[in-house]
Every structure is written in C-alpha cells, then in structure tokens.
C-alpha cells in the first residue's frame, strides 16, 4: 500500500462517514470504492464498521452482526471499537437479542468516560438512552438524553437528545405537558440526518394528543408530516405514524380513514415485528368492524389483535427480564472480581509478611553474629591483657629480667629437672660494690641506669637456658643448669670482668662499677634452691670481705654465718 492509496482511502472513508444516514446513493458508491482499495488494518475496520452500520439501518441483522462484532472486539482504535459497540447495541435490539444488547451496553458504559471523541460519545449516549428506555430503565435513559442535550458536539443540536428525552418520558408515563422545549428541539432538527428524529418526536407528540383526548390535533400533526416521512423510507416509524393515525381517526369516529390507516400500518410494518403499531392496527380494525356490525371480521381481527397484543407485551417483559438477568450477571461478576481482588490482596500481604519474617530472621542472625564476634573479641582481649599482666607480674620493673618470685619458681623447676636427670647445676649470686656511693654521688637516676647497664652486660654473657633474676636492690642471681663448680666459677669470672670493663652509664664514661660474686653448686648443697642460696650468699659475703670485685666458691660450712638474704629466703 502506498501512502497515496492511504490518503485516497482516508478521503473516501471520511466522506462515507459524513454522508451516511442521509445520502444513501453516495454512501453506497463510496463503500464500494473503498472495498476495491487495499486498506490498512485501521481503514479495514473503519469500512467494516460502516458496512455494519448500513446493515443496521436496513434492519439486516445477519449481515450486520459479524461485521460490528469484529470491529467492537478486534479494532485497535478505541473510538472505532466504541462506535461499533454503540451500533451493535442498536442492531441487537432490532434483532431482539436483548441479553447480548445489555451486555454490550455495560461495555459501552465502561468505555464512555475514556472516549474523548465527542461525536462518538454522543452516538454512544443516544444508543444507551434508547436501549435503557426499551428496558424500562427510564431514569437512566433520561439522564443520557440530558447529557446529549447538555453537550452536543459541534454541528449537532438539541434535536437528538430531545427526541430520546421525549420518548423516555412518554414511555414512562411522565409526559404531563408538551413543553415548548420539544417544539424548539424539532425546529433545531436541521441536519440532514435529523429528519428521522424530528419525525419520531412528532409521533410522540401525536401519542400525547391521543392520550389526552385531542385526536384531531394528532391527525393534523401526523398528516402534515406523513409525506416527508415516507420519503425517508423508514418502515418502522411510518408504521407507527399509520397506527397512531388509525387510533386518532377511530376516536374521531372516522371509520373509513381509521381502517385505511390501520391497513397501511400493517402493510409497511416489518412482518412479524412485535410493535405497538401492529397491535394498534389490529385493535382499530376489530373495533371498526365491530361498529359496522361485521361480527365475523371483527372476531377475526380481534384474535389477531390478541396475538399481537400478547406478542408486544411479551416482548416488553422479555426486554425487561433480559435487563434484570444481565444486571444480576454483572453484579455477580463484579462481586466475584472484588472477592478475587480481596483474595489477591490477602496473598500479597501474606507474601509481604513472609518476606518481613525472613528479613527479621536475617536481622536476628546478624545481631547474634555481631554479639558473638564481640564476645570473642572481649575474650581475646581479656586473655591478652591477662597474659600481659602475668608477664608484668613476673618481670622486674626496672631491668626486665625475672623478679624474685619468678626466679624462685623458674630456678625451682630447672633444679627439679636436674635432680631427675642427675645433672648438676650451679647458682651465682652477685651484688654491685659500693652502690650506695653511686646513688649518693650521682643521684638515683644514674643508679638506675647503672643497674640496667649491669643487667644488660650480664644478659649478653648468659645462655638461653640460664635463669637470671633480680632478687632485690642491687643483688642478682643466675642459675646455670648442667654445670659443674669450675665451669660456674669461670662463668662468674666472665660476668665480673664484663661488668667491671663497661662504663656504668654512657653519660658518665669514667664511672665504672664492680660486683662481688658467690657461687654454690648442687654437688655441695643438693638440688634445693634454698640451700644453694644460703651457700652462695655466704660465699658472696666472703667475697665482699675479701675486698670486693672477686668471685668466691661456696662451702656448706658457710651456712650459719651468712647474714645475706637468710631472713628473706626463710621467710
Ligand atoms: N638507684 C637505685 N638504688 C637502689 C635500688 N635498690 C637499692 N638501691 C640502693 O642500693 C644501695 C645498697 O647499699 P648497701 O646495701 O649499703 O651496699 P653498697 O653500698 O652496695 O655496699 P656493699 O654492698 O657493701 O659493697 C642503697 O643505698 C639502696 O638505696 C634501686 O632500684 N635503684
């Protein structure tokens, strides 16, 4: 399809849409032209809608229905779907398919608020009003008619809305007076396709006159318009006119005209249609024959009147019943949908709740893990602190070597091992010489430096397995495992020389301190630390006495005489 074809098809279809309803010949030709063109899906639906509309106008139910249904249910354009639905409602009403008509009406009402095309909405309101009138739903029918009158699209007048309003009011028995509104409205029916609406209003006005005992006015109105109506070739309305004329003439006592109009009503009416006109025609005919005393003919028409009357009334109750049925169905469906929605909402909430629970569960686990991690961290921190304190508790604060208690513990362990493995050990005890003089001469800080430096120097000369401790003040002890007295003496000599050779503190290079040493061996004293200390202490005492800065070996005979450390060790 070229765009030229598209433009051509659009022009043809638009024109057909405009002339439909008043220029039959042109409409037919345009439709034929369009059918010969290759059309886009939208234009194909548009053409089908107009063919369906044409079939509806002709009362051709079988042709119109599939065309309109395919557009109403399948067209992509919502306005076309809406227009096809409106026309389909009309056609279903013509075909007495009331239930389906009301189902379509419900769809139409759903679509109505979203339809912006004012012409389409106007046509939809008209169909809704008409169908609701036929179902006995006069209030709703009136309300749609008033909508049409309130907001007619450009080019439209009060004409069509007023016609629907008038019909709803007449059928509802609410027509108390012929307001000037209707005259104004009929006068406004100037569009080519308005003629049929003006004529319908004439029929309603005539019916009003007859009901009010003013048959002459009815005859005048109807006869004045009958010719114009016949030109419209609208069979149902022509039949209605003739039926009303027949009634009016009968009421006027003009039996000949009454009969002629009644027969005309039957002749133009659609055979088999359950119209009021048909019923009126048979009624008039039997009454005319009755008045003329043609009892056989009267009886025959009476029977036909009864049948037509029953068919007409049955049709009215069928319409009303169908409306109730559909109304109930729609209510039930709505309730069902609401129930499903509620169920879905419950499911959604249940799901959301489950998710929340999972989230809460995860949060609990997270919090527990954090608590666990915190506990582990606290335990480790406590353990490390404990170890640090234990270490501090074992060390001498100034020099960093074993304090007295730890030395006693460590030395005791080494001696116990030596006793088990029968390996001798020795204990060296030493004490800085004239240390008080250092303190007194250079101050306590230099004294401390001197102590640290002496420990440092000794530490470098000791082995990893030796136990080195500060027993207090300026007194130190070294336990040498796996060692005999000669070796111990040599090691003590080494320590003594190292201390004497090193400056006490870098800040006073000429200050040298010496130390005196006492040595005890397990060979003399056994493996008891207490005895070793006493013997080494006595030897140290002798070293001091011997002039200091020397090493003296211990002797068990020394034990009672030693004043050093005795009290403390015993204690
Ligand atoms: N700076 C310092 N001095 C200390 C420390 N512990 C003990 N002293 C001092 O060490 C001195 C020990 O003096 P004394 O016991 O009289 O013996 P000495 O002067 O070394 O003389 P002899 O041992 O006989 O050679 C005292 O003046 C104590 O105050 C310490 O940690 N730092």
Strand content: 5-15%
According to CATH, the fold-level topology of the largest domain is Alpha-Beta Plaits
Bound molecules: guanosine-5'-triphosphate
Q: Mean of the pLDDT scores?
A: 90
Distance between the termini: 122 Å
How many helical elements?
Answer: 23
CATH superfamily placement of the largest domain: Reverse transcriptase/Diguanylate cyclase domain
Task: Please give the share of residues in helix.
Answer: over 70%
DSSP, total strands: 7
How many domain regions?
A: 4
The strand line-up of the biggest sheet is 2-3-1-6-7
Identify the CATH architecture of the largest domain: 2-Layer Sandwich
Low-pLDDT parts are: 561-571
Radius of gyration in whole Å, from Cα? 64 Å
Strand pairing plus helix content: what structural class?
A: alpha+beta
The ordered string of helix (H) and strand (E) elements is: HHHHHHHHHHHHHHHHHEHHEEHEEEHHEH
What about the largest sheet?
5 strands, mixed
| Oligomer description | single chain
Description:
- The protein has four domains: 1-95; 214-349, Alpha Horseshoe (Serine Threonine Protein Phosphatase 5, Tetratricopeptide repeat); 357-394; 404-570, 2-Layer Sandwich (Alpha-Beta Plaits).
- Helices cover 72% and strands 6% of the residues.
- It contains 23 helices and seven strands.
- It has helices at 3-19, 24-36, 41-57, 61-74, 78-94, 98-111, 118-134, 138-150, 159-171, 180-187, 195-211, 215-232, 235-252, 255-268, 276-291, 295-394, 404-421, 435-442, 444-461, 485-501, 522-525, 529-545, 566-570; strands spanning 426-432, 467-472, 475-480, 503-505, 508-512, 515-521, 551-553.
- The longest helix is centred in the middle third of the chain and has 100 residues, at 295-394.
- It is rod-shaped, with a radius of gyration of 64 Å.
- The model is unreliable at 561-571 (pLDDT under 50).
């Amino acid at each position: 399809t070229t765009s030229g074809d598209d433009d051509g098809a659009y022009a043809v279809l638009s024109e057909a849409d405009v002339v439909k309803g008043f220029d039959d010949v042109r409409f037919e030709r345009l439709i034929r032209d369009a059918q010969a063109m290759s059309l886009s899906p939208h234009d194909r639906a548009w053409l089908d809608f107009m063919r369906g509309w044409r079939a509806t106008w002709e009362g051709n139910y079988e042709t119109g229905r599939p065309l309109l249904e395919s557009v109403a249910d399948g067209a992509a354009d919502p306005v076309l779907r809406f227009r096809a639905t409106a026309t389909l409602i009309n056609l279903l009403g013509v075909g007495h398919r009331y239930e389906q008509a009301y189902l379509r009406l419900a769809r139409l009402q759903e679509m109505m608020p979203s339809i912006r095309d004012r012409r389409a909405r106007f046509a939809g309101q008209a169909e809704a009003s008409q169908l609701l009138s036929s179902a006995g739903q006069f209030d709703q029918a009136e309300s749609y008619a008033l909508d049409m009158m309130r907001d007619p699209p450009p080019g439209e007048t009060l004409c069509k809305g007023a016609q629907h309003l008038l019909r709803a009011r007449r059928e509802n028995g609410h027509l108390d007076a012929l307001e000037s509104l209707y005259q104004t409205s009929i006068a406004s029916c100037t569009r080519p396709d308005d003629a049929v609406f003006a004529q319908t209003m004439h029929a309603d006005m005539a019916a009003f006159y007859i009901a009010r005992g003013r048959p002459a006015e009815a005859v005048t109105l109807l006869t004045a318009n009958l010719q114009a109506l016949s030109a419209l070739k609208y069979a149902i309305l022509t039949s209605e006119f003739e039926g009303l004329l027949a009634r009016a003439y009968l009421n006027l006592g003009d039996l000949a005209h009454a009969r002629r109009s009644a027969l005309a009503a039957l002749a133009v009416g659609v055979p088999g249609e359950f119209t009021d006109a048909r019923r009126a025609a048979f009624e008039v005919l039997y009454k005319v024959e009755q008045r003329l005393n043609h009892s056989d003919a009267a009886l025959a028409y009476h029977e036909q009147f009864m049948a037509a009357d029953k068919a007409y009334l049955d049709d009215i109750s069928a319409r009303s019943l169908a409306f109730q049925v559909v109304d109930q169905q729609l209510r039930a469906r709505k309730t069902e949908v609401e129930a499903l929605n509620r169920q879905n909402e419950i499911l959604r909430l249940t799901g959301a709740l489950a998710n929340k629970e999972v989230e809460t569960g995860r949060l609990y686990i997270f919090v527990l893990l954090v608590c666990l991690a915190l506990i582990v961290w606290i335990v480790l921190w406590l353990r490390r602190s404990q170890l640090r304190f234990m270490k501090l508790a074992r060390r001498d604060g100034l020099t960093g070597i074993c304090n007295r208690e730890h030395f006693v513990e460590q030395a005791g362990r080494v001696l116990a091992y030596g006793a088990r493995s029968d390996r001798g050990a020795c204990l060296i005890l030493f004490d800085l010489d004239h240390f008080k003089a250092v303190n007194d001469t250079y101050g306590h800080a230099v004294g401390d430096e001197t102590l640290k430096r002496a420990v440092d120097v000794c530490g470098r000369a000791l082995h990893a397995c030796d136990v080195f401790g500060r027993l207090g003040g300026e007194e130190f002890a070294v336990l040498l495992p796996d060692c005999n007295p000669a070796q111990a003496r040599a090691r003590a000599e080494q320590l003594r020389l190292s201390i004497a050779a090193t400056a006490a503190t870098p800040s006073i290079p000429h200050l040298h301190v010496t130390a005196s040493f006492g040595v005890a061996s397990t060979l003399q004293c056994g493996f008891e630390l207490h005895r070793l200390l006493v013997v080494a202490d006595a030897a140290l005492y002798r070293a001091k006495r011997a002039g200091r800065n020397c090493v003296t070996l211990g002797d068990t005979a020394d034990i009672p005489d030693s004043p050093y450390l005795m009290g403390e060790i015993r204690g």
